[in-house]
Amino acid sequence: MNTRIISLISVFAALNFAIALLNKFFLGSSSFIGVSIAHITVDAILCTALLITVIKISNKPGIATLVGFITGLLMMFFGTKGPAPIAWLLRGLILDIIVFGLYRSKCELLCYSLAAFLAFLAQTFVGKILYLSLFMPAKAWATLTSTLFIPLVFIGSSLSILGAYLAVKKIIPVIA
């Protein structure tokens, strides 16, 4: 790993962390509906755009996984509970697997959109399930399934496709 790749990982992890911290400043408490409104909008779109941008800039398998994991570590060390590194690692891993594994670097907007949708969906579900398993009583599971959590996660996953569009069609052409 050269200095450029290490710098990209550091910068993009810090940017993802900063965007993910915005969740605390928006209305839509995650205890009421199971997921914050900022997570399914700001996080879904902007963090996805950043992860896809770093994939396109570096063209290195595993970079989204590393950025995701480091973002999760930052989240854990600066305010969130334990599952963040696993959930963020999973988000990056799914992006890497689809982009570099299934499409072997021939990924276009449709491929990035699929990867973005699945990565956000997996991150949110796994993060919430781990959080509930580790830190909440069993009664919380009933609350989660009786709220808008599941529809909102699918809305957030759909909005993450906008992040893929921003990265592929708007950001990459300008910086490449």
Characterization of the model:
The structure is a single chain. With 176 residues, the protein is mainly α. The chain has a single domain (3-175), classed as Arp2/3 complex 21 kDa subunit ARPC3, CATH 1.10.1760. The chain has eight helices and no strands. The chain has helices at 3-21, 30-33, 37-58, 63-77, 84-102, 109-135, 139-145, 149-175. The longest helix has 27 residues, at 109-135. The model has no long low-confidence stretch (mean pLDDT 87).
Number of strand segments: 0
Pick out the low-confidence regions.
Answer: none
Structural class: mainly alpha
Shape, principal axes of CA atoms? globular
Supply the number of structural domains. Answer: 1
Q: Can you tell me the CATH architecture?
A: Orthogonal Bundle
Rg from alpha-carbon coordinates: 16 Å
End-to-end gap: 21 Å
Overall pLDDT level:
87
According to CATH, the fold-level topology is Arp2/3 complex 21 kDa subunit ARPC3
H/E element sequence: HHHHHHHH
Helix share, percent: over 70%
Strand portion: under 5%
State the gist of this model.
The protein is an all-alpha fold. The chain is built from 8 helices and no strands. The chain has one domain: Arp2/3 complex 21 kDa subunit ARPC3, CATH 1.10.1760.
Write the layout of secondary structure elements.
Blueprint: H1 3-21, H2 30-33, H3 37-58, H4 63-77, H5 84-102, H6 109-135, H7 139-145, H8 149-175
